[in-house]
Amino acid sequence: MTKPKILVVDDDPDLLRAMRLRLRANNCEIATAADGYSAIATAQKERPDLIILDLGLPAGDGFAVLERLQNNNQLAGIPVIVLSARDPQGNEERALKAGASMFFQKPVDNEELMNVIRVTLPQWHPAVVPLPS
Amino acid sequence: MDPQTTSVLLIEDNPGDADLMRLRLVEGHSSVKVRCVQRLSDALSALSREQPSLVLLDLNLPDSRGAETFRKVLEKAPNVPVVVISGQDDEALAIKAVNQGVQDYLIKGDITSKHLERTIRYAVERQALLRSIEMAQKQRLEFKNQFLSHISHELRTPLTCIHQYATLLSDGLAGPVSPDQADHLKTILKSVNQLHAMIRDLLEATRAESGKMRVEPRCIAIGDLIQQAIAMMTPTAQEKHIGLEAGVDKRIPLVYADPDRILEVLINLIDNSIKFTPQEGSVVVRACMTETDAGFVYCSVSDTGRGISPEAKMLIFERLYQDPDAVDNNRSGLGLGLFICREIVRLHEGKIWVTSEPGHGSTFTFTLPVYSLPKLLSPVVIWQNRLRPAFVLVRVQLKPVTNPPQGNWRDLWQQCLDTLRHCVYLDKDLVLPPLGSPGPDETFFVVACTDMQRSEIMITRIREQLGKIAGLHGKGTLAVSAAPIELPRAEPGGSFPGESLDEQVERLAARIAEMIVGNMEKQKSAARSNGKPRQSVIHKGDVQ
Fold it and tell me: Which of A11, A57, B166, B527 has its CA 20 to 30 A from that of B335?
C-alpha cells in the first residue's frame, strides 16, 4: 500500500477541511462525507482503507452508519475509528459493540490519531511532511 | 375509585379502639372508606396489593412494637401518608415517628371527629406537596445533568476546530512559522487545553453529583503513582522554579484504589500547590502510615505557599468554591478540582482534608484503604463459621493480539473484568482486584470455593463468555487455567487445632498471595527466556 485512502465523515465542513489538510500532509488519500447517508454511498464508491466517523450526523447518525457498514459484506471489514465530541461514558462501549475499533473524544491529539492510523494500516508509510516531534 | 373518596387503612389490634375510630371516621367524613387489619404482617401485604389514601397506625401490634412498626410501614409504602395513633403515655415515641417521616399523630381518648377529619386532610395534602417537591427536585437535577452534558458537547465542537487549525499552523502544514508566531500558537493551544480540561471537570462534577462516578479499585503501590504524578508535573514546577519531590516510606503497604482516579487526585493537588506557591518555593508529596489508623495509608501534598485562611478551609472542597484572595492567579478554573478530588476519595472510603498556617503553606492529606486480602476473602471463604473445605485459584490471562497493542485494550479489559464478575457466584467465589495499573497484558485471578473438578464448569463459562468479547474485537487472546490451593492441613478443612477463624483466613490469604507471586515470577522468566523482554505481567512496582 503506498497511499492509504481514508474516508472522513463529519458534518462540520471546517473540521473536514482541517482533517483533509492534515491527512494529505501525512501521505493519505482523502474522501469525505458530511452525513450518514452519503457516508455509506462514498464508502461503497471509494472503498477506503479506514473510516474516521463522527457520531452526531444528519441523515443517519454514526451508530446507524456503523450498523449499515457491519451489515454490508463488502464494507464490514473496513476498520472504523469513531471521533466524536460526545461523552465516552455510554457512547464508547456502544460504538465498540457496534463494530468500531476505536473511540476518540474530540479534540483529539493529532499524534495519537496518527499513531492509531499507523497501527491500523501497518503497510502505510506516513508523513511526506515529517511531523514535528 | 371515586377521587373524592378517602380510603383509610386502619391498623389497630384492639377491636374496641378500632370500632371507635371507624365511627369517628365515618361521622366526620361522609365519603371515607375504612379497611381494618390487626397485625402488621396483614397490613404490609394489604399495602403491597393496594395503596390507600392514608394509613392510621397503632404502634403496638401483636407482631410488632414501637418504632419498628412505623419504620416497616414507611418502608413498604413511602408515598402513603401515615398518621400514628399514640397512647397518652408514649407521645415521645409519636414525636420521634413524625421526625422520621410520619405525617402526624393522634392521642387515644382525645380524638374528635372534627379533629380527625382535619388531621387526615392535612396529612394527605402535606404528603402530596412533599411528593411534588421531590419530583420537581429530581426533574431539575435530571434537566441540569442533561443540560451540562449537552453544553459540554456543543462547546467541544468549535474547540476541536480551533485545536485542529492551530495545530495545522504550528505543525507548519500551512507554511513556515516564525518563532514569534510559533510562540503565539503555543499560547492558543495552551488555552485550548485549559478550556478542554474545564469542560471535562464540568462533566465529571455532574457525574459525581448524580452518583454516576465510578471507581475500579485495584491492588496498587502508591509510591509508584506518586512518582508518576511527579514526573508529569515536574515541567510545570520547573517553569515556576519550584522544587517538587516525593517522600515515600519504603515499608508502605499496597493500597486498594483506582490508579487512574488517584493519579487524577494527586495531579490536581500538586497543580494547586504549584499555583499557590511563589517562585523558589517547594512542594513535597508524601505517603506514610500512622499509628492510630492502621487500615489506611496517608498521602499528602505540602507546599510553602501562602496558606489558606480558616474560613476558606471550611469551604475549599465544596463545588464551585473560588478563593476570593486568588488575585495573583488569573486562570483559577471552575472551582471543581477539589470537589472532584473529595468525591473520588469518598468513593474509596477515604477522607480528605487540609491543614494550613497562613503565610507558611498548606498540606492537603487524603487517606486510602490498605489492601487486605484476608478482609476481601472473609465474606466468601467462611461458611457457617468455618473455612470452606476446598479452594481453587483460577487464572485468566488476556493479551493483545498485536504488538504494540492496538488502541482500546483498556476498555476491552474492563469489559472482560465486568463479564468475569458475572461468570462467578458472588457468595462463593471472589474475583481478586487486579494488580498494579491497567496494562496491555492483564492477568485476573479468581478464588473459587470449590474443588478442581467442579471448577471446570466455571472455567468453561469464563472461556465462553470472555472468548466472545475478545473475539468480537479480534484484538485479544485469552488463556484460562486453574490450580488447587493446597493448605497444609492438620485437620479437615486445612485448619490447625487452636487456630482462630481469622488466623485460618490469614493463612489462606498468605498462601494465595504466595501462589500469585510465584505464578507471575514464572511468567516473567518465561517471557525472558523467549528472548523478548516484553512486559508480560503488571506487578507491584510497575506503573505504565
Answer: B166
